[in-house]
């Protein structure tokens, strides 16, 4: 997969550059958090796709998940999305990933591991820390890009895990890229917004200008006139995914 060009992303040159640099740093063991924060329709998923393309170009292993509004009651649902393929269909012995403190992650992911507790850890910190070490053990095999879309709809247990990992990326070959809606306020996401602003990368895509909005409209209706393009921009408030007149 190729990395989208800045032209493909319409007025997102700075954001695309930040995405590419964050991925490159992870490959050099300078891992970090990149949070894409914006309203619905701002083009967050497009930037997340750019991160995916950059990670694939750099040879990072991808762990992907997407929050879903109707699945927020399923504890560790997003965590399962991230790791199920790794421990059930990956290369190498998956049991090795649960070495050390990571062994407590086995019951969370319903992985049968000799010597691991039968039930979920009673202490939320223990589960979060175990899943962090599982992530670190996997990163010891190869650099990682952990990509989560619609993070604001992730279940609370998974949000706690993501926040725990986000705070412990220094010196690891891991880039954690998450997209969330700016209008949603949750304690874990608010904490990660502050962290991304202080020590990571916080991207807040601005509304599209007239030329970019017109380009989006004309990608759907090539014959669209200036009046229609301006009307679409006003109606969508410059939000990329809302600029289509179809």
Number of helices: 10
**Order of SSEs, N→C?**
HHEHEHHHEHEHEHH
Main sheet: strand order: 2-3-4-1-5
Structural class: alpha/beta
Could you explain the architecture of this structure?
The structure is a single chain. This protein has 246 residues and is an alpha/beta fold. The chain folds into two domains: 6-203, Rossmann fold, CATH 3.40.50.300; 210-242, no CATH class. The chain has ten helices and five strands, in the order ααβαβαααβαβαβαα. The chain has a five-stranded parallel β-sheet, sandwiched between helices. Helix 2 (13-27) runs parallel beside helix 3.
Task: Describe the secondary-structure layout.
Layout: H1 6-9, H2 13-27, E1 32-38, H3 44-58, E2 61-66, H4 77-89, H5 105-108, H6 124-141, E3 144-149, H7 156-166, E4 174-181, H8 187-199, E5 201-203, H9 210-220, H10 226-236
Helix pairs in contact: 2-3, 6-7, 7-8, 9-10
